[in-house]
């Protein structure tokens, strides 16, 4: 009986782990005609290695993220990405707290974001 319990517990943990990973980013293609801006929230050192063409470079850890997002239309839709999706999630939380009401999509990593948007990676 304890083996069955351990198996069920491990199975549930695996299901929730996979579900939470997929929640970090979108895997489906994004209709870019509905997106006002693509925002890269990585550091300047990270974006120097490449970023999506046309993306706004708003370093979430740079100290002026709140000022940068204050220039944006709060009702528009935004696609946000970083290295893994974690900082993009934090950026989305900050944007919601600042009153953003449009669709805020976590694009995950640069590669995931490029795949979802069809935008080229530039340097």
Automatic annotation (TrEMBL):
Q: Name one GO molecular function term.
A: transferase activity
SUPFAM superfamilies registered for this protein in UniProt: Rhodanese/Cell cycle control phosphatase
Q: Name one Pfam family in it.
A: Rhodanese
| Residues spanning the signal sequence | 1-23
Q: Gene3D superfamilies this protein is in?
A: Rhodanese-like domain
Q: Where is the Rhodanese domain?
A: 38-122
The superkingdom listed in its UniProt entry is: Bacteria
- Keywords for this protein: Signal, Transferase
Transferase listed as a keyword: yes
Please give the name of this protein: Rhodanese-related sulfurtransferase
Give the species this sequence originates from.
Rhodoluna lacicola
